[in-house]
Fold each of these.
Amino acid sequence: MTRMIIPSAFLRRALLLDAVSCAALGLLLAVGAAPLGWWFHLPLPLLREAGLVLLAFAAFLAWTCTRPQLPRLLVLGIVAGNALWALDSVLLLPGWIAPNGLGACFILVQAIATALIAELEYVGLKRCATAAMA
């Protein structure tokens, strides 16, 4: 049986921060892929596709923020997904892509921000009460 939690206010705010930041970065990447690709020396398809994924994830997170109860594993999946995104972003740098210095800084800053949000969500998860079984 799935263990349900009642999201703490802290967790709701962390998920909302994640949703807003994903929506902002996703919109920037999806709409501004061409100039960003030129400035950062990053592949346009990578920027556009990452932007679209972030927009979809932002919508999912926004929906998640409104639920009175959540499966604990769902929140752990969100935390793990953010941690994986941050790690994969850093792993892109040593050879998968060849950004300029500004592009490398952009990737590292968004990876650090994503890792920090994952940490906030994990702390928020630890503050949650377990939902009473009906």
Amino acid sequence: MIYITQLIYIKEGQQQVFHQFEDVAIPIISKYNGKLLLRIRPNESSMIETNIDKPYEVHLVEFVAEDDFKNFMQDEERKKFLHLKEQSIKAVTLIKGTKI
């Protein structure tokens, strides 16, 4: 198993566009042996300590293998909607890991 954590930062006023992209992308995860384990929208009161900007959302996704993740990223249906991602997302920090 591999785990992908994403800290997602949205451009001001682009939340709806981001949601349109997510409505397409999230269901495709399961097509590639993946599972969305956690999707969080942190707020100020949920932050205990921080030295970075607060992300709009945090995603934790599990894939059976690295190739599954790569195939998800290359999915043709997902690619049709990448313009929504590019329009709405300012930055993403992607952290890849394994279970210890």
Amino acid sequence: MAEKKSEKAKEKLHEVHEKSSGFKKEFIEFINRGSVVDLAVGVAVGGAFTAIVNSLVNDIVMPIVGLIAGGVDFTNLAITIPNFFGTGDAAVIKYGNFLQNVIQFLIVAWVIFMIVKAMNRLNRRRDAKAAKEETKEEKK
């Protein structure tokens, strides 16, 4: 009788191991999917690209914009609404900070657009050159 219990326990342990190995197999298949790996690569490259774009905007473009705009800084613009109920502080709406972030977003979007536009131009030239060489080889 003790032998039967031992066999049943071994069978249960084997079933649990098979289920967990099925889980492991499914997890490995999930990780090995191209889309997951592509996403991970995209996130890593996107992080590096973000640092480049931020440096370009903050260190090169924004000083030029600051010169053109006369050093205007919107971050200090705010509206203070007094507390009419007598408890707590007044409400401060910092719309200048919002405007500054919108302007910075537009500048970052413009910089990214210019980078993509330049890359597209280079790709078109490369493709045209490859097509031209292919045409030359076909004529031979």
